[in-house]
TrEMBL record:
Main location: membrane
GO cellular component: cell outer membrane; efflux pump complex
Protein name: Outer membrane protein TolC
Signal peptide residues on this chain, from the entry's feature table: 1-23
Organism whose genome encodes this protein: Treponema porcinum
Pfam families: OEP (PF02321)
InterPro entries membership: OMP_efflux, TolC-like
Cell compartment(s), UniProt: Cell outer membrane
Superkingdom in the source lineage: Bacteria
Family from the record: Belongs to the outer membrane factor (OMF) (TC 1.B.17) family.
GO molecular function: efflux transmembrane transporter activity; porin activity
Amino acid sequence: MKKLLILQMVLLAFVFTQGYAEAEVEEVKVLTLEDAVRSAAENNVQVKTQALTLNTLEKSNTFSWNSVSPTANVKGSLAEDFDAGTTSLSVTGTLNVALSANLYTQIRAAKLSYERGQMTYEQTCRLIEKEVRTAFYHLLYEQENLALQKKSLDTKLTQYRNNQEKFRNGQISELDVMTSKVSYEQQKPTVEQAETTFTNDIAAFKQVIGIDQRIPVKLEGSLDEVLSITGISFQSLPERNVPAPDIQDAQKAVEIARNGILSQRFSAYAPSITASYQLRKANRSNVDNIATTNSLSVGVTIPLDGYLPWSSSAVNIAAKKNELEAAKLTLENTKTSTAVQTENYLRKINLAIAQAASLKANVELAETTYEMTKTAYNYGKTDFLNLLNANDAVLSANVSLKSQAYSLISTILELEYLLGIPFGTIGK
């Protein structure tokens, strides 16, 4: 009996603990757009990986002078001459220093690589933020679409029950009852599909922003805020003191190419200096004194093949010049491409705003038509098919409006990412 009592207590404790853990996990987390962005910045794997790459470039930049750091080594030897019966012991220390003319370009190259790495890291963070914002608005669209589909399902269920009552009272035919039932049943798979899609996308969104999959989330926000945006022109865009990120990257590529030419020229024409200091102590067992060798050597190497147009050094210099010209062409093309994309996005945004205004009016018309058709149907002035079509028109108009709002905000986010403008500033 005691063992049975103990076992029951253990089981009760386990059930209680398990229930408490589940209750703790199932606490709903309210998630705003800014919460999602902040969570992604802290937990996203791609951001963390890029941060490690930047850390490596930073260390390379900090110690870019290490090519002139002296190299030192110590060598010891022990020799035994069995015929002479002597033992020799020696210790040699060597210190070498090499100084090349392209030390400056090596330091400069490390600095430019680090600066470009900083730009890449910032763009990675902005790319993740853009994707998070786009995904959040898409989830809002799916959430509102699901709500609209459920509302339509409830309306059809209510209409089906009302038609059953009217049929029992002899007010409508059995065909209207069957039609309302079929319409209701056909709406169920649509709602289930919308729920499945929303659940799957929520799971993918949690992975991106680094939230435990077991934690249920509730999105806080609405696409109605997007629909309040008015027309946008190039002049109304926020001012920036620096070029667009793609242009900055192309400019940095030109700097790197210029530094590459200078480095290659130093290698081809400039002398390099080497210095070596050696200290050696040696002793033989049959000699009382310790022999000491103390020497310093300095050498200068002057390359001459760079002056020969067919040499590999001359060919490498010509190749670096071509790389610089290619980088300049890429820079000019990037400037043109950025300007063209900006104009394209502005046209798409203004077109989407105009279409959204038209869809708003369409929603109002559909809702008014439905209410009038519903009144007419209740008075027996129209058939059920017209009422069903009017209800479907309301659903379709609302879904189209929400879809247009998502398309509008997605295009705005693309423009903000292209120009390097802080997200959420265009249209305010």
